[in-house]
Amino acid sequence: MSFNLATILREPRRAHPDKPLCHLGELTFSYAQVDEISGRVAAALLGSGLRRGDKVAVQLPNVPQFLFTYFAILKAGLVMVPLNPLLRAGEIAYHLADSETRVLVTFELFADEAVRGAAGVEGVRTYVVNLPGSDRRPDGTRSYDELYAAQDTGEIAPTEADDTAVLLYTSGTTGRPKGAELTHFNLYMNCTVGGELFGFRDDDIGLAVLPLFHVFGLSSVLNVAVRYGGTIVLVPRFEVEPVVAAIERHRCTIFSGVPTMYFALVQADLTGRDLGSLRVGVSGGAAIPGEVIRAFEEKVPGVVILEGYGLSETASTTTFNISAEQRKVLSVGKPIWGVQTRVVDEADRPLPAGPDQVGEIVVRGHNVMKGYYRNPEATAEALRGGWFHTGDLGYADDDGYLFIVDRKKDMIIRGGFNVYPREVEEVLYAHPAVVEAAVIGRPDAKLGEEVVAVLSLTPDAQVTGEELVAWCRERLAAYKYPRQVRVVAELPKGPTGKLLKRELKKELG
Amino acid sequence: MSFNLATILREPRRAHPDKPLCHLGELTFSYAQVDEISGRVAAALLGSGLRRGDKVAVQLPNVPQFLFTYFAILKAGLVMVPLNPLLRAGEIAYHLADSETRVLVTFELFADEAVRGAAGVEGVRTYVVNLPGSDRRPDGTRSYDELYAAQDTGEIAPTEADDTAVLLYTSGTTGRPKGAELTHFNLYMNCTVGGELFGFRDDDIGLAVLPLFHVFGLSSVLNVAVRYGGTIVLVPRFEVEPVVAAIERHRCTIFSGVPTMYFALVQADLTGRDLGSLRVGVSGGAAIPGEVIRAFEEKVPGVVILEGYGLSETASTTTFNISAEQRKVLSVGKPIWGVQTRVVDEADRPLPAGPDQVGEIVVRGHNVMKGYYRNPEATAEALRGGWFHTGDLGYADDDGYLFIVDRKKDMIIRGGFNVYPREVEEVLYAHPAVVEAAVIGRPDAKLGEEVVAVLSLTPDAQVTGEELVAWCRERLAAYKYPRQVRVVAELPKGPTGKLLKRELKKELG
C-alpha cells in the first residue's frame, strides 16, 4: 500500500542505532541521531503548514544538514528539489518558480545570492544553515536551527512507491532546465541494486566528496551507504589533501568520483600516504581514460576502479562494470538488474551490436523517472515509445557492453559539472553585440574540458573578449561561463543552417 | 517509469538461460524455455483482444502451465486471478463475475465444474490444460495448446510499480471473498526481501508442494526461487511418499510447508530415506507447535525450521524468524525489512509489549495490498488509519517478537473470558497420543461458548477422553481447558492443509 524511501534510514537505525552514519571533520552523527533530528525537522516543516507533495529546495554542500533535511522531506511526504550552490540569482528564481517550491534551505556562504533569487518568487520561505559559531544571515530569512525545535513523532508518511520523492533539475538534451521526477521506488531500487554492484556491506565506509545535490552523489553515495547500513565521510569540496586525509583518518573503503578526481589523485604526490583501506573506486559522470584507471590502480594497490553510466533521469546508475574480472575498460558496462538499454537509429529502430553501429542510447526499467515536472511535451518526447532517450550516442558490443561515443551530443563536462552550451549561448545571444554564438568544450588536461565561446559580432561592435566573458560571469554559475572567447567572421553551418559544432571542435582540438 | 514483476524471470534468464527453472516428474523446463513459452502465451492473450489490466483467472494445480500462464499475464500487463481448484460452480461464478475476468485457464480434472461456473458469467473464454496424452475438454472450451501458437515478441509491458499484478481472493475476516489487489511492487519486494530471510541462493532447489494459487506458494516458493535464479520441483499435491521421493531425487534444499505437512513427515517412517540435502524448512499458514519443530529437526539433521507469518493482503511474508540462533519457538518472528507491525486495542490504540497485552495485529509497509477490488468500503475498513488490520490476535515481547494468539474470529469467549484455541491446542499436541488437534467453541446457553477439542490420535492410542481433559486441566487455567473431547479419524483440511475449523463448528453448532 505504501512505501517511503526513508525506510532505508529507519531499518539500519533499528538494527544498530549507535553506529556512525556520517562524519564531517570532528563531527559524527549516528543512525539514531540522524533519524531523530530528521524527525524533528520533518515535524517542523509539517508544522509550518507544508502539505504532502509540497516542494522544499535544498541548496547545501555536503554537510550533515543535507542529510537531516533530505530525510525530513521524505518522512514528511514532501519533495526535495536539490539545487547547485553555485547557481546565480536568476537561475535560482527560475528553479524555485518552475518547481513551485515553498521552502528554500540554503547555506550561509551563498545565502545572499539565494535570497536575491528567492525574492523574485512569491511565497518562498528561506532557512539558512550557518557555519559553526556564526549567525549571520540576510534579512527576511530564518535560522535553520528553528527547524530543530519540533518534537520527533517517529512518523513516516505513507507515500506510494510511485510518488515523487526528488525533483532533480537537469537540462536534458535541450532547452531550459527541467525537473526530472524521481519516485520513492526509482531511488529505492537504484541504491538497492546499485549497492549490490560493488558489494556494499555494513562495514563499508564511503567517501562522500561528490556533491549530494547531484544524482550520482545522492543515489550512489548517500543512499547506497544508508541502505546497506554503512558510514559516509562528508567532504564539502574536492581537493587532494583533505580527501586523502579523510580516507586515511576514517579508513574509507569506497571512493566515488568523476574522472577528473581520479586524475588529480594520480597526479598528486602520495608518498608516505596510506590509501590501503580503499577497495573500490566507483567512476561515473564522464568516460574515464584507461590510462587513468591503470595509473590509479598502480598507485593504490588493492583498489579496483569500476565505471558506470547514468543520468539524472535514470535515478543514477544505468549500466555498470561489476568487477575487475568482468569489466571492459572504455566501456560503461552492462545494464544493471531490471534495466534494459538499446541503441537506436533516428527513427527509434534498434541497431545491431558493433562499433560501427552508433546510435542514441535509450533506457527502460525501474530507474527511469516518472517524467519532467509540469512538462508533458518534453516528457512525451523523452519517453517516446516507452523508452527514455538519453541523447547520448554509443554502441553495444557482442557481449552487451555499452560504449559511449559522445556525451549528450554537445554537452561539456567541466571538472565533473555538466555545462549545457545552449544555456551559455542564450546568455551570449542576450548581449547586443552578439550575432551568432556557439559554446563548445576544448580539451583540458586538468578539467577534462574548458568552456569556449565562438562568436560572430555586429559590424560596429566595440566589445572586447574580456567584456563578453565578464557578461557571462555575472549571469552564470562559476563553472559555466566561458573562459575564452573567439571572434570569427562567420560560424560554420550545415545545409539546414544548423551550426556545425563538430567543425569548431576540430579546430580547437 | 515502469516496473514489471516479470523482470524476476527475465534477469536470471539472461544470466543462465539453460538452467532448470522447474521440474515436474520427468519434465524439466529451463529459464529460457519458460521465458519463451510465456512470451508466446502473452502474445496469444494480447492477440485475442485482451487489453492492459484485463483479468485472467488461473485455476491450475502445480504444473508448468501455471508458470507459463502467470508470467504470460505479467508480461502482457494483464492481472492474474488465481482460483482454488476445489471451488464449486457457484463459487467460481462469483469469483469470475466479481473480478470481471475475461479469460479462464483451467485443468482437465476440474474443467466440468469450472465450465458450469463460467456459464453463469458473460464473456468468459475458457482454456483447458489437458493431462498428458488427453484432449478431453467440455464443449465450448478451447485447448490451452492454442496459446502456444503465437510468436514470442520478447516484450514485457511497461506497467507501473503500483499497478495491480495479482488479484487474490480471500475471505479476510468477514463476508464474501474479496479480491486483494497485489501490485508488481508488493510482490517484487516480498520475494526479494523474503528470499534474503533464509538466504536463498541460485544453487538452491525448492520443493513446491504448497499450492501456487495461494500467496504462500506464489510469493515465498515460486517468486523467491525465480527472483534468485534457483530451481523448483513441482509436486501437485501433498502426500508423504511423492514428497520424500522428490526431495531425494532432486536434492531439494528448501522445503516450504504448513504445519500439517511437517507433522505428516514427522509421523512417517523415513527409515533409509535421505533428506540430507534439506537445509531450511519454511513454515507458515498456521502456528507450528514447538513439539513438531523439535521432532522434525531431530528426524532430519541439518535442517532448521523457520516460521513466518503473512496473509493474502500482505503479499505473503510479514514477520519471520530469520535463523536458528535468532528464532523464538512459538513466535512468528519479527517484521521483515520495510514492514512495521503493531498490536492495537479495539480503538486502534497501540498496546505495550507483554503477553498480557493481546490485541489485533496491524501492518504497514511495502507488502500491504493496494485494496480490495471494487470494494472501497471494505478497503477503507481494513486499511483504516493507514494500517492493514489482520484480524489476528497477538502480542509482542520486549525484543519485538510477535506471538499470534489466535484468529480474531476463532477466539472463544467462555463466560466472559477470552480463550485462545491455539494455547489449548499446544497443550494437546504435547500429549504423546495426539496427532491433530482443533479447539473450538460450542454454543452454550449459560456460558455463551464452551471449549471443545476435536482430536485425531495415533493408531495404537489407549487414552480416554477423560484422561485428555485431565491432561489439559493440569496445565491450563480453569476457564480454558476443554470440557469435552471428541476423537475423529481425520480432521477436515483445506487445500493448503490448513485445518477447517469452520467445518467442525458447523457440526457442533
UniProtKB/TrEMBL annotation, chains A, B:
Keywords carried by this UniProt record: Ligase
Keyword Ligase: yes
Annotated ranges, domain AMP-binding enzyme C-terminal: 423-498
Domain called AMP-dependent synthetase/ligase: residue spans: 14-373
PROSITE patterns: AMP_BINDING
Keyword NADP attached: no
GO molecular function terms attached to this record: ligase activity, forming carbon-sulfur bonds
Pfam family, one: AMP-binding
NCBIfam families linked: PRK06187.1
Family that this chain belongs to: Belongs to the ATP-dependent AMP-binding enzyme family.
Name this polypeptide is given: Long-chain acyl-CoA synthetase
Originating organism: Micromonospora mirobrigensis
